[in-house]
Task: structure prediction
Amino acid sequence: MSGSDGKTGATRRGFLKGALAAGAGAVSAGGAEAAGGDPAITELQPWMREFGPGVDASPYGVPSEHESHVRRRYVEWLRPDTISAVNFTPIHQLDGIITPNGLCFERHHSGVAQIDPARHRLMINGLVERPLVFTMEDLKRFPRENRIYFLECAANSGMEWRGPQLNGCQFTHGMIHNLMYTGIPLSHVLNEAGLKPGAKWLLAEGADAAAMTRSIPLEKALDDCMLAFAMNGEALRPEQGYPLRLVVPGWEGNMWIKWLRRIEVGDRPWHQREETSKYTDLLGDGRTRRFTFEMDAKSVITSPSPQAPITHGPGPTVITGIAWSGRGTIARVDVTLDGGINWQPARLSGPSFDKSMHRFYFEFDWDGRPMLLQSRAIDSTGYVQPTKDALRAVRGVSSGYHNNGIQTWAIDSDGRAENVEIT
Amino acid sequence: MSRLHDVAWLFSCIFLLTAAAPAQEAGPLGLGRPATPDELAAWDIDVRPDGKGLPEGRGDVLTGEELYTELCAACHGDFGEGSGRLPALAGGEGTLTDEFPVKTVGSFWPYLSTVWDYVHRTMPYGNSQSLSDDEVYALTAYILYLNDLVDEDFELSRENLPAIRLPNEGGFIMDDRAETELPAFSAEPCMENCKDRVEITARAGALDVTPGAEEQ
Result:
C-alpha cells in the first residue's frame, strides 16, 4: 500500500503521528499560539505570490495533490488476484451522500471490460413477442429518469462475521457507493419487446469475460429497475459497467449487472453460479438461504474510525456516518458513546431518498475519556439495525454475506480508534 | 408521480403507433430491431436446472480427466482440492455445519446445470468460451467423478444431465427474513440504561491484517 502514495501521503502520515504524539489537548487551532503568530498568516505563501496553473491545465479536473491519500484500497489476502477481486470506497474520508465517481469501490470477476460503445448491444430475448437488439443510441431515445441509489455488495462487512478483523470502515463497510443514475426504466425496454404470458423472471447478463449473470424477479424489474448509462451526470466509468449497467435499487450489488448485454425473460430462475455457489447465505444449521436480495438497514460511523482518528483532543467533536436501507428511507439514526448503555438520536442532514444513503452527524463535547462508539439505523419500515450477536443468533457465523450488524469503534484517550466487539 | 406521467406518455405513443404501423411488427416506440437467429444462438447460452438451454452433446469422465489435467488442474488442484485462494471443486462433504465449511460442487451446489453453464461461459479463467460443448460435458462429468458422485465409465449428455441430483439440492430454502427476522428486529429500541456494564470481547488490532496499518 505504499508506492503510489507519494509525497502527500507521507506528509499526512507525519501529520497524524505528530498530532497523536502531541497528545490530547496540546493541539489547537493551526499554530496560532506560536510567538508572533501563525506562519500560515505571517509568512507569504507561494500561492499568494505566484500564478497557479492556467484554466486549461487540467481539462478533466482532478482533486488537489493534498488529497491524493483519498483513494480506493485493496486487501491483498482477500482474493487470489486483482482480476476477480474487490477494492473499497474510502468512506472515512467522504462526506455528504454522493460518492465521487473515481472512488466507487470495484468488484469484477474478469477485470474491467474495455468496451467500445459503438459495438455494444443490448439484446432482449426469451418469453417476449419480439426478441430485440438495441444500440446505445436506441436506448437513449427512451424517456430518461434521474434517481439516487446506494449500491452495497452483499459481502460488505462479510469478513466480520466471526469477529473484528479489519481496522478501518473503508475495509469493513467500504463496498458501498451512492450515485445519481441517469437511465431508462427497464420496463420501457421490456414493453418494447412485449412480455409473453408466463413471464416471471429475468436473467441479466454482462458482456465481460465472466459473462456475469443473475436472475431477477419480473415484479422487481417492472417496479424500479433501470438501465443506466450515466453516474453523477457523466458516462459510467468503465469499472462501473460502461457503457450500460443494470440498477436494482435496494438489492445486493452483484445483481446490478455491469456491461449489460442481454436480458432474457423466463418463467423461473436460472440458478446461476452467482446465486447458488455465491450470494447464498449458509445458516448455522447447515441450511442455506437463497434469493436474499434486499439489503437490510445498516449504518456505520465513518469518522472517527480507525483510519480517521480524533486528532484535535477534547472539546467540540463531530461524529459523522452513513445509513441506508434496501427497504426505504432512513427514519432515524441513534448514536451511543458508551457502548450502548445510553443512546441519543443523531442529526440527519441532506436529502432523504428511497434506497439512498443518508448522512448523519452527532456533535458533542468530548471530555477526552475513552469511548465505545456505535450507530444504529432505523428505517421507514420500523426495522432496527441489530447487533452482530443478534444476527449470529439467527444465522450463525458462516453465511459470509449480509452482515448489517452494529459496528463498534473503541476510541482511546488519544483519539485513536479500533474495530472491537463488546458485550 | 413521474412514473404515472411516463406511463401516460407511453400509452399515447402506443396509440399513435398502433394507429400508424401494423400491429406485432414493432414495440410501442418502434425502437431497436429484431434479433436474428444467429445472434440469439451466439448470446443465448444460459442453462437451467431443467435442462433448458443445454446444447446437443456428450462427454465422459476419462475425456474430462485429460482436459482437466491440461486446462484446470494448475488452478483447481489435481483432484479439485483447490490451491491457495483458488476455489476447490470437490470435497467438503458434511462440513456445512463445521466452523469452517468447505463449499464445493459436491458439498454445496444445488444443481449440476450450474456447473455446465459456468464452465462454459467463463472457464478456463482468462480464456472464456474457448471450450466446445462436448468438452464442457466431459469436464462436468469429471467434476462429478472428483466428487465421488459417478463412476469412471460415466458419460454425461444433454439427455441425462437434468436427471442428475446433487447431494445438497434440498439444503436450500427461500429467503425467510420476513418471518424469521423482520418482526424480531422491528421492536422500538431501548434508549436509556440499556445494560449495566460493557466489556470489550474482541479486537481487530490483535489480528493485524489491515492493509496500510503502518500508515496510521
The two ends of chain B are 49 Å apart (CA to CA). Strands of chain B lie at 33-34, 58-60, 155-157, 172-174, 200-203. Residues 1-23 of chain B have pLDDT under 50 and may be disordered.
